[in-house]
Amino acid sequence: MPKEHLFTHNRAKCIIEGASRASFTLYRHGRHNSDAPCGVNFGSPLKRKYKPEYASRKKYDYDAARTFLRLSHEELIKVADTMGEKLNGAHGPVKVLIPLGGWSSVDKRGSYFYDGEADTVFVTQLKKHLRRNIEVREVDADLESSEFAKAVVETFDEIMQA
Length: 162
Known about the structure:
By secondary structure, this protein is an alpha/beta fold. Helix content is about 35%, strand content about 15%. It contains 5 helices and 6 strands. The radius of gyration is 15 Å and the shape is globular.
């Protein structure tokens, strides 16, 4: 399974850059799915596309070509709505896992880039938008931890057994 179908970083990029690349074809084909918000709380626009309001945001220089910018609350709501819409269109069973300790290697709990309050904006909006039969599980671990990996495997096993 392509990484994009479990981890969702390209969805945020679509919102912040104004693109609409996220087709989410896996969901429409009735496949079993577990999903997690990998990096949906930041975008990485090209420097030539920077807007003046980006100057005040938290930034993380990932490498020479990319700088990650934390999304605003309004952008997080758009990402949550888009993700919810796509998940609601799934024909197969879906469960969403939320790693409370951070959604990428650069925003783990305790780091400069981590913002649990902003992440909660996304989670709250996503829960409002999802069908009742799509379960959202919060896991007290970061996305890259063995605890979260175990939760993903257990959840996927549950889906496959159903």
